[in-house]
Amino acid sequence: MKNVLPRFQRPLNGISEPRTEVSHWDKAMDAYDAKKFRMALLETINYMNSTILAGKDTSGDINFVQNQGSAEIQVRIEQETFSVKAPFLKITDATNKVALYRKVAEINFAPLTLSQIHLRGEELWFEFSSPVALCQPYKVYDVIREISVFADDYDDDFVEKYKADFYQEPNTQPLTGDEAEKVWQQINDILEDYKNYTAFFKEKRWNDFQWDITVISLLKIVNMPYTHGTLRTKLQEYVNNMFNNSIDFHHRIDKGTNFMQELCARSREDFLKDMYHADAFISLKWRSSVQILQDEVKRFENTVNSYVKNNDNFSLCYYLQFNFLYMLYNFNVEEHQKNAIYSVLEDVSGLEPNMAAPKLLKVYHAFLDGKDHMNVASTKGKGFFAKLFG
């Protein structure tokens, strides 16, 4: 096998992810400090997703429903009370009730910290309520994020594991026939590259690079905006484990390898059942800014400089590939920043490391030089991409 970089093709466009608006957070904190608690609550929601309350009369009681993946988040704001609910599951005769209730009780202790899952008749609901005067912005953000994340993550998993039913048919949009074919081809390419590169690294006895190709493969799939359901939950679990330095490095490689083998054995149908478009109340990624991303790339500046000094283009290329993908996994970046990463990963696909390294470094230094990066991003004419890749 020729020593070239793995292929990359940017994902298809999904439904736009909500963007956090920092100005609303500042207004929320100022309002709460001034004891304008209702205003603080409304501005916190605007911070998470500024489209939800746009055009609505917010002077009286407010009720709205917003989907988060396959979950439905119901919010009610009265003059004195704030509540969030999410219908979760229906219990049926086929449900393994003892195992399900035991798991729900466990979840109510951890990871849930503010909300709780309640049994209402034969239905399970995520619920939280509080006086408006106690709705500190951090608390509101945390509870909405908590319910949104776990209601969406657990519903598919519990339907599969415990034979419960969805509370209602998830309000999602399936991929079109053409989209499904393109997505399946992308997944096939990722898995084919994974198998070829793991065999190549094994032949060369470059065992540590098994971690790199595993992480790169996982991130390519989980970063697809239409990856949902139990597939996304498992991908997130393994990505987080692969980056968990408290776990032995070689144990992480072994666990990641086993999961990749499971993915390679999945059928087209198994993959595509968890691939669909879905709305979101809140982004699951962290807020980003030029400064935040600059700080992020500074975190691995010493390692990059070490590879450059030693002329180790091979290690440098893999290191920057997975770090760029990991940035997209963690941060809700601006569209031009996302496209900069997508473009360079496509540009270096199939190149030898000595040809790919300068291209990857060019983008890395654009992020590292935060002020110039922002200036370039906002220029007219040739614009960001021409200056960055020209």
Keywords summarizing the entry:
single chain, 390 residues, alpha+beta, two-stranded antiparallel ribbon, 16 helices, 10 strands
What does this structure look like?
By secondary structure, the protein is α+β, with helices and mostly antiparallel strands. It has 16 helices and ten strands. Helix 2 packs across helix 4, helix 6 crosses helix 8 and helix 13 (335-348) packs antiparallel against helix 14. Helices cover 57% and strands 12% of the residues. The longest helix is centred in the middle third of the chain and has 28 residues, at 177-204. It starts with 21 loop residues before the first helix and ends with a helix. The chain has helices at 22-33, 37-48, 97-109, 137-162, 177-204, 209-222, 229-242, 249-265, 268-272, 290-298, 301-309, 313-330, 335-348, 353-368, 370-377, 383-389; strands at 62-68, 71-77, 81-90, 116-120, 123-131, 165-166, 173-174, 276-277, 286-287, 331-332. Strand 2 (71-77) and strand 3 (81-90) form a beta hairpin. Strands 1, 2, 3, 4, 5 and 6 form a six-stranded antiparallel β-sheet that branches. The protein is globular.
In short:
This protein is of the alpha+beta class and 390 residues long. The chain has helices at 22-33, 37-48, 97-109, 137-162, 177-204, 209-222, 229-242, 249-265, 268-272, 290-298, 301-309, 313-330, 335-348, 353-368, 370-377, 383-389, and strands at residues 62-68, 71-77, 81-90, 116-120, 123-131, 165-166, 173-174, 276-277, 286-287, 331-332. The strands form 3 sheets. Strands 1, 2, 3, 4, 5 and 6 form a 6-stranded antiparallel β-sheet that branches. The chain has a two-stranded antiparallel sheet with strand order 7-8.
